[in-house]
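Chapter review. Work through the record for RCC1-like domain-containing protein before attempting the end-of-chapter questions.
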Amino acid sequence: MSAKRQSKSKANGVSRKRNKIVEDEPPVLSEEDDDDDRRSDDDDVDELAEDNTSLRVKGPDHIGVVLLTGGTNWDLNGRKSMPKGCKSVGRNLYEPHLFGPLKDNRIRLVVSSCNSSHTIFITEEGKALSLGRNEKGQLGVKDLLRRDIPTPIEGLPDHAIVNAATGRGHTLLLTDRGAVYSCGDNKNSQCGVKSKEPVVTTAMRVKYNGPPIVKVGCGAEFSILLDCKGTLYSFGLPEYGQLGHNTNGEYIERAGAINFATVKLPKPIITFVEKTKNKVEILPKPEIRDFACGTNHTVAIDDHKKAYSWGFGGYGRLGHSEPKDELQPRLIKYFDVQRSGVKHVACGPAFSIAINEFGAVYLFGQMSSRGEANMYPKPVQDLHGWNLRSIGTCSIGLVAAADDSCIVWGSGTSSGELGLGELKKSSAKPCEMKKLDGLYVEQVTCGSAHTFLLARDLSEDDKDIIASMPEYKPVVA
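Structure tokens for RCC1-like domain-containing protein:
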């Protein structure tokens, strides 16, 4: 919750609590009925797999070696001080290091987010490993202990894992059959499972029986799914309209206390709108091709390369020239006026990035507390001419793989996540990460205060550059 909203709540003498009622709550079942229902769910998944024996969700083609820069004290990352009972283990890495625990492994995908202090690794064989903070069970390893060494996630099926997403305290995992599993913080129903427990410590299948899912995404306390037919589904906390269901779920529980009705199961987002000063027009339901989640907002692209955004609107992160929250997907008119379609989007805590079909990069929102707030998409001239292929967003900025280099941009207190060295920890303008000169980075992902990079190691030159890097060997907490 923003400071602005907190002060407003206090001024009104209202306490804003969460998670007292649940939207779409299934009927109460006896233990026997619940077991039968669970078996039925599993049968549905098996039938779906049998009906689509030739259908597989495809993950990335690239494979590489994992590099790390930034904070490695997972319990401290993104916080001002260590929580009680946690050991202060780990140090800040101010330049890229070879990640020792996985130096002999072939990794296909690394996943974290600007809200997360944990990371998911997907191996060449489709196995999922987890690392980092685990106080909400987000690592899926049956306990709440942090992991400094990547550890296999418990409860997953034999099917290959092809993608994943991380929130502040929860994780989603996507199989090649289009099924989704989740673990971690479920206080606001962001795991989308039938369990009423606030914490899910092993991966459980999300309660969903529709068309196969092809992409998953997480905000801080909400989740988004995209199916193969272009329909989005959301569940979790709706406080700022981030679920796109035309409500923030707010209700008065009693005098002086406001709560939010969370959405427990995946619910389709069906209404998309275009707004002008005088009217709101409901648009034909688009076929969504891609999306990205920030802390409390989402930006999506349809098959005509139109962009939509919804959720928390502070600092202009939705690109509508106003800071209002949007409770349902709203067309970003700027790109229509420019007559340029959007081919890729990325979201940070309070900003969004869009790349149009000509390769131009646009920023809307506020990248750091010291920076300017762009109320609508503005081109980033310093990135003109760069071919950005992978973008990771952290709490202070972004890291992007581009051509044969890596671009970083951000200012503020840094733990080394920009990889610029100990003397220059941040940059107010986009610049190259000099330590990676000559190395082709396939993919980038950022957490709240750390960055993982997946580097190509096919040529002898690639291997020589990687071999010259310092190796990070974690101290086990």
